[in-house]
Amino acid sequence: MAELIKLTIDGREVEVPRGTTIFDAARLNGIPIPTLCHQQNQTPVGVCRVCVVDVGARVYAASCIRECDAGMTVKTDVPGVQKARAALVEMLMADHPAPCIRQQNSGDCELETLAAELSVPAPRYPRRLSPRGRDDSSLSIAVDHESCILCDRCIRGCDDVKKNLVLGRTGKGVTAGVAFDLNDPMGASTCVSCGECMVSCPTGALTNKRVVGTELGGGDALQAEELLDLPVFDGVSGTFLELNQGAVVKRHFKAGDIICKEGEFGSTAFYIMDGSVDVFISAPIKHVQQESTSSGWLSTIRSMLSDRDQHPRSEETTKRWIPIDAPVDLPYDNPRARLGPGDLFGEMTCMSFHPRSATVRAATDCTALEMLRNVLDILQKNKTFRAKLDDTYRKRALENHLKSVPVLAGLSGEFIDYLRNRVELIRYAPGQVIVRQGDPADSFYLVRLGFVKVSEAHPGGDLVLAYVPRGGYFGEIGLLGGGVRVATCSALDHVEAVRISGEDFRKMIEAFPDIRAELARVAEERLAQNRARQKTTDSVELNDFLAQGLMEAQSLLVLDLEKCTRCDQCVKACADAHDGVTRLVREGLRFDKYLVATSCRQCRDPLCMVGCPVGSIRRRNSLEVIIEDWCIGCGLCASNCPYGNISMHSFAVETADPEPSNRKVASTRKKATGCDLCTDQAEPSCVYACPHDAAHRVEPLTFFGAKFGLTPPRSVVDATVREERPGVDQTSK
Amino acid sequence: MRIDRTHQSWAVASGVALALAAAGYVAATASSGRPWSGGSAIGLAYGISGFAMMVFAALLAGRKKVPVWRIGRAQTWMRGHLWLGLLSFPIILFHAGFAFGGSLTRVMMWIFVVVILSGIAGAALQHFLPRLMFARVPMETIYEQIPHVRAQLLIEADGIVSDACGGMAVITDPAAERATGGASKLQSSVRVDAEESAPLREFYLAEMRPFVAEPDSAHPLADRQHGDQVFARLRTLLPSGFHTAVSALENICEEERQLSRQQKMHAWLHGWLLTHIPLSFALLVLAIIHIVTALRY
Lengths: 733, 297
Prior knowledge:
With about 725 residues, chain A is α+β, with helices and mostly antiparallel strands. In chain A, helix 2 crosses helix 4, helix 11 (about 385-405) runs antiparallel to helix 12 and helix 14 packs across helix 15 (about 515-540). Chain B is an all-alpha fold and about 300 residues long. Chain B has a two-stranded antiparallel sheet with strand order 1-2. In chain B, helix 1 runs parallel beside helix 3, helix 3 packs antiparallel against helix 4 and helix 7 runs parallel beside helix 9 (about 245-270). Chain B starts with 7 loop residues before the first helix and ends with a helix. At the A-B interface, helix 16 of A face helix 3, helix 4 and helix 9 of B.
C-alpha cells in the first residue's frame, strides 16, 4: 500500500497517497481546478497550463502533472493564479472562432465556458493571419483546425486509449497542429472512425457529422447499447452510436418482399443478419436496336430490344458477368445471385448516392440492418467488420471478380487460391490519388466499387483519358512497359480496389502467357487511343469554344441559324423516327452561325459514364459511346450528360409476376440510348426532314476546318474519321 | 428558307416553264381569233397544270406531317412548293385569260392573289428574319420555353437584389401591398447597408421588377439606350461593391429585351402562315368546286 502524505490545499489539510497529482488530490477533496488538456482517463501532459496552482515556488505549477509533496501548501484560487489562468484563456480565445461549432450546437465548448467563468474579456490580441482550415473528408467527423487548442486530448484518446495510432502532432510554432497519419485528410487516413478523438475534444475542433434530418423511419430503432451487442458493431464507439441514433434500423422482411428495386435512388446500405435474399436484374438484358420497317419510300425506323447474339455490334463486349453493388457479380445469361448472413449490399448507393444496381428480394424470411452513410462509414473503418468483409470477399467474391474481367477469365483455380490471401482490399476516399503519373509501377488494381478517373498531366491541364468502373482494371501499362506510371488514377467517389502486387502480377503473366498477350494488346490499344486524343488536342488551333470539345466530336448535328426558321421539323422528325421519343433538342452551344444541337460528341471528360450502377455504358475504341445490354434504365447517364445527348426509351416487355411466380405480366422498361444517326437510313431523319437546308450532320474537323481555316493534319482526320458515314457531310456545304 | 444560289436550277426551270406557257398563250390567242376560254382544250391544259401545281404546293403540309417517310427530302419539297406555287399563278391567269370571270372565280382569283402575296411575303420574311434573329437575339431560347425562362430570370433578379440589399420577402397581406403603392409585391425585410443600397433597391422595386415580371414594350427599360443610361447612373450612385449586382441585373434586362425581340420575330416568321394556309386550303376547295361545276355544267 502506498504511503500517505499530508498537504494543505486552499487552507484545508488533506491526505493522499504519495504520487498523487495536485489536480487529483484537489478533485478527491472536492476542490475544483479548471483544466483543458487533461481528462481523467488520459495520461496528464500539462500542455495547456490552465490548471496552474501556487505551491509557493518561483513559478506556478501545472497541477495535473505536479505530484503532491508532504507538507506542501497549495493555493488554487488566489488572484495571481486567477490572473494567470485568465491570461492563458484569453490567448487561446484569441485564436478560437467563438462561438465554435460545438458551442453553437450544444453550448458546451470547454474553452468558451471557461472563458465565461473567468470573465475573460474579448481578446486583445490579433488573430493569426493564416487560417488553419477545415477537413470535411470524413463522413462521420468534422475537423475544424481553427478551433483546435492543441491540448492533445484527441491524440492521447486515439493512441493511448484506443491504440489506433492515427493521430499525432505536425508542424512547429504557428504551424503546429494535429494530423492524421502523415498529415493526410481524415477521410483518406487509416482512421477507423471509432469516435474517441471526437469524444475527447474539449472544443469544436472534432465534432460529430450527423446526417441531418434523415433518420430512417419504420423498422426497429436500435439504441446504442443494442447495437453494441451486435457482433458487427464490435469495437465501435458507443458515444458515436448514441450520437447517430436513428441512422440504423433493423428491418424484418418476409419471403418475397422486395427490399430495393434496380434504378431507384436511395441512400442506405443493407447488412443481412439472418435469412437470405435474391439479387437480380429484372430489366431485359438487351440493347436498343434501330431498324427500318421496310426498304420502301414509306419506311420508318423502329426501335426494338435485341441481345448481343441477335444483334452483335462492333466492339461488343464479351463480358459474361455484370458488376452490381453487392459482393457478387451476376452472370450475363441469368443475372441472379443469392446473398446470405454477413453480406452487405448497397454500398455505392449509400456512399455515393448511385441508383440501386439490382433488385433485391427476400428469398426467405430475413432480417437486415438498414443504415445511412455515416454508420456504414464507421462500420467500413471498423477493424473487426472490415476483417469480416475482407474475409467474405476473399472466400466468395474474389474468384468471381477476377473471372468477370475478360482478360483474366483464363486464370486457374490454383492461381486464384494463391492470390486469395495475397491481394489487398483498399479503400480510397473521393479525390484520393491511387497511382500518380511518373511514379514507379508496383501494383495492378481491379476496381471493386466506385469509379476511378484516369488522367494525364499536360501543360494546359489534365486530360481525362477514361473512367474505370467497377469490374475494370488499371495499372497494367506501367507494369508491362517501362515500370513507370503513364497516367494518374484517382478515386472519383468512394472506391474500393483490389491491389495485386507487382511481384504477383509478374508471376501471373509468366504462368499465363495468353493473359499476358491479352493484357499487352489492351494496353497497346489504350495507349493508341491516348495518343490519338492527344494528337487531336495538340494539333488543332483551338479557340475557347473548340476547347470545349467540339473538335473532338466525330459527328455533329449543326443548324445553320441564318437559314433555320425555328419550325422544329428536325425535332418532330427525330421523335417520329424513334417511337415518339426525340433525341434532339434544338438548343445548345453556338459556334459561328451554327447551333450545335444534341448528339454524342465523345467528350474529353465523358461524365455520362460516371456513376452507372452496373457499368453498362462505355466507350468503344473509336471513342463512340456504347450502352451494354444490361442497362437497367435508371437514367443516370441521361441526367449526367451535360448536352442532353442520351435519352431514355420505353419498351413494353413481359416480366415475371412475383405472385404467382409462373405468370408473366406486361410492364414498361426503359433503356438508355443515344443518337443512332437513323441507322439503316440513307440520311438522318432530322437532316432529311429539314425543309430549309439548315440541318447538317457534319464531321467537325473537316467541316469547321474548311470553313474557318483550321486545317488539322491528315493523320488526325484519319484517326478520327474511321469510316465515312451516310448522311454525314465530310466537307463544307 | 434562304433563297440563294442553290435555288438557281429551280428559278431557271420555272422561268423557262413560264416563258413556254406565255408563248403558248400568246400563240393560241393570236391563232384562234376568238375570246379566250378556260374551257377550251388549251385552256383546260393550263387549268390542269396550274391546279396540279397548286395541289403539289399544298401537299407540303402533308409532307411535313410524315417527316420520316423517304419520299424526297423536305428541302426539295419546299423548293417545289415555292417555285411551282409561284408558277401556278401565271398559269392559272393564262387558264382564265386574265379575266376574273363570275362570282366564284372572282372570289377564287382574289383569294389566289392573297395566297401568292402572303407566300411571297412569307418567303421574304423567312429569307431575312433568321439572319436578323441570329444577329439580334444571341440569347435565343426555345420559343415555347420563353415563359419558363422569364420566370427563372425573375427569381434570379430577386436573388441578386436580395443578396445585395438584404432579404426580400413577398408581401402577402393586401393592406401591406397597398401601402407600397402596389408598385411591387416585394419589400426589404432585412436592411443591410440600407442607405448605401437604397438606390438599387428602389430602382429594382419601382422600375426593373415590373419590367422583368411583365415585359412591356412601352416600358422605359425595353429601350436599350434608356437601360444603359439607367444602369450607368446606378453605378455612379452605388459603391463599387454593388457594381457586380448591377451588371448582373443589366444582363437580365438585356436578356428580357432579347426574349421580347425573339417573340416578335417569331410572330413575324410564322404569323403569315395564319393567312397563307387557311386561304390556300379554301382556294383548293373552291378550285375543286369550280372544276366540278365547270365540267358538269
